[in-house]
Amino acid sequence: MVLRLLFVLLIAFNIAVGAWLLLGQNDTHASFATDPGVPKLHLLSELPPPASTIAQAASIASAASTTAATASVPAPATTTTTRAPAAASTDANTLSYACMALGPFATQEDLRIARNALGAQVQRIRARQEQTMQMRGWWVHLPPSATHAAALAQARALGARNIQDYFVVSSGDNPNTVSLGLFKDPANARKRRDEILAAGFPAQVTERTENVPEYWLDLIPTDSKHFDWRSRIHDPAIGSHSTGCF
Length: 246
Hints:
This protein has helices at residues 2-24, 26-31, 51-72, 108-118, 148-160, 186-198, and strands at 100-105, 122-141, 167-169, 177-183, 204-221, 239-242. The protein is an alpha+beta fold.
């Protein structure tokens, strides 16, 4: 009986000690994961960063802040100075250029002579021909007849009155007309007309014009300011005027 009681007590004691070891010592063992005097182990993620790393991070942050501040400040305006080319000389030797026309020349031969006379004074030159209406004088005549025979009869009647210097126009712009003369002076033309009228014939005075060719030189002088074409072309009928360049 006593042995049985001791056995039960021993079992109860073992259970109590086991419970104490399992439950009563947890906090103590939790506080000391290592033996005394041995440094406690830490994970790498739990270690504080080295001082050099902190200084480097602070330097990078400072540089970034400075860059941002600089970017936020407007850059000063840059003024570009373009040096103008040296002004062209304006002294008496400065060349000037202008396009001009000389003419009109009466014939192509006159044009050729003038072109050769200008020579090296021009840097570009061309010849052109135009048609112009020119007054050729005053024509004294009788009105045109209906037929050529009627015109011949008028001519014989003039001869019978001792009127000379006439002829019958048989073709052209005024056929069957009796011509009594072409005059450059209008006073002479009127005098001739009055003589024929006094003889009893219906004389008329008509201004004569016709299309005639005239010739021009278009040119660009080598130096317009000092270009003296009059010293080479002496025809007083030739003139000059400005014209479009070519």
